[in-house]
Amino acid sequence: MDTSHLAEHAGAAGSFFASIFVVATLSMRTMIPLRVFAILTNIILIATAVPTHNYATLILHAVLLPVNTYRLHQMLQLVRNVKKSVNSDLSMDWLRPFTTERKCTAGEVLFYKDEKADSMFYIVSGRFRLVESGIELPVGALVGEFGMLSPSNTRTQTLECVETGMVLSVTYDQVEQLYVQNPAFGFYLLRLFSARLFENIATLEQRLAHHATPQVAEPKPA
Ligand SMILES: Nc1ncnc2c1ncn2[C@@H]1O[C@@H]2COP(=O)(O)O[C@H]2[C@H]1O
Questions:
Q1: Superfamily for 92-203?
Q2: Looking at ligand 1, which atom is closest to the CA of residue 120?
Q3: How far, in Å, is the centroid of ligand 1 from the Cα of 6?
């Protein structure tokens, strides 16, 4: 039986469906649906390349399929870990693949107040202190997000290393990409930012109230 006609039809149908999936993939705005559609496109093109003996397409999509699958797995893991962090304030180890290590020695200043900001830090070890407020940041804390979200993109405080340690730095460009791709990460950042903002407002209110309290004069001895 001549199967060449069947192979031709399978190839044409496959190309038609693959074209639809390519358009769908390229029109996806977020990373997870984009990878899902890319994987479906790879599978269709592999399946249709076999009967038509289109080996170039077969090899290309056989290479792209594991790449897309791995990237999808990474994204899903990221979203899962971010959700855990949002719910229970767990460690942010999931951020590690997107960061650069930086060693800090005691006395070193990571950034100064009012300086232009382009990255945030995740504290891995050592001790770090915000100079103006005196707040000591624990291991596992993320610091430097105000610089990204404030209109002037400048630091609101100075960060000093008190005891030698290590931080992971992540650029705002990278954070913006994660923010757009993962609404859960964006939500985590907003919660962190607003919690600290409220804390700072409460501290300022306390200071103001303290200064506004009328000083009661000591009664003079008779
Ligand atoms: N109340 C707070 N507690 C912990 N960290 C804070 C607090 N307020 C500000 N910060 C951090 O201090 C950082 C100083 O640099 P940024 O302004 O870029 O970002 C700021 C926040 O990440």
A1: Jelly Rolls (2.60.120.10)
A2: 18
A3: 65
